[in-house]
Amino acid sequence: MALRELSSLEKSLGLKKPNKYSTQGDKKVPVLQSNNGPSLTGLVTIATHLVREANRPELLGSTAEQRAVVQQWLEYRVTKLDNCPKEEIKTILQDLNQYLEDKVYMAGDTFTLADTLMYYGIHRIMVDLAVQEKEKHANVSRWFDHVQHYPGVRHHLPLLVVLRNRLYTSGHH
Amino acid sequence: MKLFVSEGNPHCVKVLAAVELTGVKCDISHVNQDEQVVPHLSRPSLPALLLPSGLHLFIPNAICRYLFEVSGQEVSDQSNQWLEWEGTELQPPLMQALHMSALQGKGAEAAGTLQGPLSFLERSLNKRATQFLTSEEVTVADIVLWAALYPFLSDSSFMAGDLGQVRAWFERVGQLEACRSAAQAVLKGKGLEALKGYLQKQPVPHIQHRGAQPCNQAEGEDAEHAITEEEIQAAVKTWSQALSDFPAPADRQHPILPKEGKRNVLITSALPYVNNVPHLGNIIGCVLSADVFARYGRLRGWNMLFVCGTDEYGTATENKAREEGLTPQEICDKYHAVHAAIYKWFQIDFDFFGRTTTAHQTEIAQDIFWRLHQRGYLLEDTVEQLRCESCQRFLADRFVEGICPHCSYPEARGDQCDKCGRLINAVELKDPLCKVCKQTPVVRSSKHLFLDLPKLESQLEEWLEQSVSSGDWTPNARQITRSWLRDGLKPRCITRDLLWGTPVPHPDFSEKVFYVWFDAPIGYLSITANYTEQWEKWWKNPKQVELYNFMAKDNVPFHSVVFPCSLLGAQDNYTLVNNLIATEYLNYEDTKFSKSRGVGVFGDMAKDTGIPADVWRFYLLYVRPEGQDSAFSWADMALKNNSELLNNLGNFINRAGMFVSKFFEGRVPQTELQPEDSRLLAQVVWELRQYIQLLDRVRIRDALKCILNISRHGNQYIQVNEPWKRIKGEDKDRQRAGTVTAVAVNVACLLAAMLEPYMPTVSATIRDQLRAPPSSASTMLHGAGSFICTLPAGHRIGTVSPLFQKLEADQIEALRKRFGGQQPEEEGSKQQPKTDATSEANAKPATPAPPAEAAGNFAKPERAKQLAQEVAEQGDRVRALKAQKAEKAVITEEVAKLLELKKQLALAEGKNPEPSPQKGKKK
């Protein structure tokens, strides 16, 4: 799974020659094999490294503050979102919805690596949401739809339908 | 910028250390742990950093990274990698460990949970060349990991394997003032205690996966199995089937013979060599493992025969006889009895425990020999051998000693070097000496017979392929066998120039006997023949019989290659091994058991420790070297006894029984199952099935964990439902207390059944206390395993009493010292006066003084006591000097005094001052 993400990321970054990966342990943590220097382990580590390789530093944030926010959501993705127990999903969606209320992207007004990896990570949750639930978390849905249509991002994942007009007007409880 | 932290929150340590270390200016605000600081999060989340833009950072590692970055230190890929590892691999088990340790008092389990990530860290630190994790300077990675591990590593009693590198690194980072003050600010010097309030408010952490790094999967708790609705329904259905009229298991009728339509299982355990007292490693390696499996098989209703015996022929016996001034036969008689007594004490339930020096052995070995000879599988060759002219005989194997040609160890034996472990051909020894008369032997040639293994190789491979693919062969057994075949088989000598052995019947070799490894495995057959005249029904019946061989890994090639070749070549439809179960080695504390150096606990001493045989069995099986070497450790044994047996298993069973006696006049109450009861039933069934699947594949150690998991579930169940409170409540509450008690006591009854292979006495005691129906055990362990309500409502139980006793620290420490090494030495191996001042063993009255037959040695108990005291004091003095790195001459002088004192002490105790072999002492 993580390997497909990384390969999609490579394509969207326009990296020419694909890197060699392996996985480690039963969680299949990705490992980037490297000819020069030691290998790198972990999705976030490798993704950050790839962005630097591709010379797209703006995807990691353009100020120290934004870089910190990007890194925070990257870590959030692998520690909180991945493997989250079922009963936690509701809270995660609620929190994200709240957070995205006044933001276009995860780190503010510009698209970053945080959007890509959060999108890959939350896709499995969004797939299972009913139309009503998507509408309830309108900010998340809006952001999600935005990112899945962002050029070059979607690659290995199927497009999800997000309705833009509200069906359930009394949706707030 | 403003940083929000709260006292007693472990995640705040790292951010405070980072602020202090980087010197980034920001206000620090101490808030209550429930304070909602981050507006978009629905739960309180601390620490949090309010950025100038008004955004919050709420993930601790992100805060640390940001602080380092604004102070001008860029975060490298390597540091990133450690931060990610910390968040994904370390934090989940860490939170679980904190929870266990601070809230549940399960320090030992907590250490087990952390063992995976810690040993990964240890290995990584071992590989790196820098002072800190990623460079010569402290980086954000060091701070984050240091702070995460602080609650555990700052506690000097925390034990989780060998962590030399981790501890050194932890010290180095901890010297930073920033780290110390951050830890102080959060924990207030109270250690784990300080975190209680925080941890209580967190959801109970559980790990979805076992440590994902390829770490040795040490003692971590097994991942919780997610129980499905179907499993729950099935468990409830089975539970309510009353114990049908299962016949009680029939008593064993000897002789046991294969039966048509039954699963006929023949179990052998490697024959222990007679000339020595077995140590714990020998016991777990073969007889105890085989016994667990045999007991299990009997419960499962298989038709089982379990045979073993002492291997009595060979040079070592001759040697021993010479040392003790007895004939070889007398030596064998004496030690056979010693072995039999030890195994009896350990409750090894052989169907027959025989020996190899019998007429049947001669008959069967010679028959196999002639069959091999007639079929052209034996070769003749001359061998160069050492011969001692003064003793008038060839010096085989252990009759010769010399300098190891590989490592120059001066006391290498004729067959193997104890130091480097390599096999030696006796003629290769430098400066060989006859062990008996100390003369230098000469090289002579002698004619011998060889088993033509190359000629049998293709047959062997064909059979192996079939056996290994259809049976259970432990990975080490497969691998060792493969490597023997890969290296190509060579003819193997089967005769020896000795007296004490099965005579070679061929007239040209009339002075010779069979080499012990041709002879010994035939012992399995001859021992069975001594058990029943119809032994061939077991041994020439591969269609009906399934053969399991148990052994330690050093015996594998003889059971998988050499012996099968003998039997294949003899062409008499022999039963060949189907399942070869080999253990790795068990070490003693940090060293090896050594017969010749007397390090470790030997079979006959175990009972002198006052620790019950079942507890020994439990611990040896708990650390059974399954898949990798393991170690016996006194401290760990005490820990496992106190945490697993006493607090977990014993506690649960005892409470369940006590509730029945105290609250329900000794009668099992009515049940009305609620969802949580059903859930427990399903959890228990799942563990029971695991247990059966594992034991069917002889994963003895792993299956033991299932038993402990069930009682853990049980304890939790009692704890949550509090029957002791509800019993005082209204009818509804009382009924609830009844259900919980009835379910719990039935779980205890199941545990008694599952324990039988491991701890037979404890199992019998529990069944006795609960008055369990005789058929309950075999019924529940039948088939895939079913958990049935075997103690129905109204069933009257017996008197309940505690099952285990605590092992106290001082008791264990005394035992550790007593068996710490310098036992009276074996084989009178020329003693170097011990220069190691810690050898206090002689001072300990470890073994009762032997009869004072060594002329003139009379025991003087008073004097001995005084001397023992003096020896201890002098020992302390020497150690102190050594620790201060005093001058060598001074130390030597004090050591000499110590040795003199010890000598006097030995005399006063009536011992020979040159310790002599005492292994054979009678109980």
Automatic annotation (TrEMBL), chain A:
Single GO cellular component term: nucleus
Gene3D superfamilies the record matches: 1.20.1050.10, 3.40.30.90
CDD domains, per database record: GST_C_AIMP3
Domain called GST C-terminal: residue spans: 49-171
Any single biological process term in GO: positive regulation of DNA damage response, signal transduction by p53 class mediator
Superkingdom of the organism of origin: Eukaryota
Pfam family, one: Arc1p_N_like
Name by which UniProt lists this protein: GST C-terminal domain-containing protein
UniProtKB/TrEMBL annotation, chain B:
GO cellular component, one term: cytosol
GO biological process, one term: methionyl-tRNA aminoacylation
Matching Gene3D superfamilies: 1.20.1050.10, Glutaredoxin (3.40.30.10), HUPs (3.40.50.620), Isoleucyl-tRNA Synthetase, Domain 1 (1.10.730.10), Methionyl-tRNA synthetase, Zn-domain (2.20.28.20), S15/NS1, RNA-binding (1.10.287.10)
Catalysed reactions, semicolon-separated: tRNA(Met) + L-methionine + ATP = L-methionyl-tRNA(Met) + AMP + diphosphate
EC number in record: 6.1.1.10
Family: Belongs to the class-I aminoacyl-tRNA synthetase family.
Xref: SUPFAM superfamilies: Anticodon-binding domain of a subclass of class I aminoacyl-tRNA synthetases, GST C-terminal domain-like, Methionyl-tRNA synthetase (MetRS), Zn-domain, Nucleotidylyl transferase, S15/NS1 RNA-binding domain, Thioredoxin-like
Name used for this protein in its record: Methionine--tRNA ligase, cytoplasmic
Compositional bias per record (Basic and acidic residues), positions renumbered to this chain: 874-886
Cell location: Cytoplasm
Main subcellular location: cytoplasm
UniProt entry keywords in alphabetical sequence: Aminoacyl-tRNA synthetase, ATP-binding, Cytoplasm, Ligase, Nucleotide-binding, Protein biosynthesis, RNA-binding
Domain of life: Eukaryota
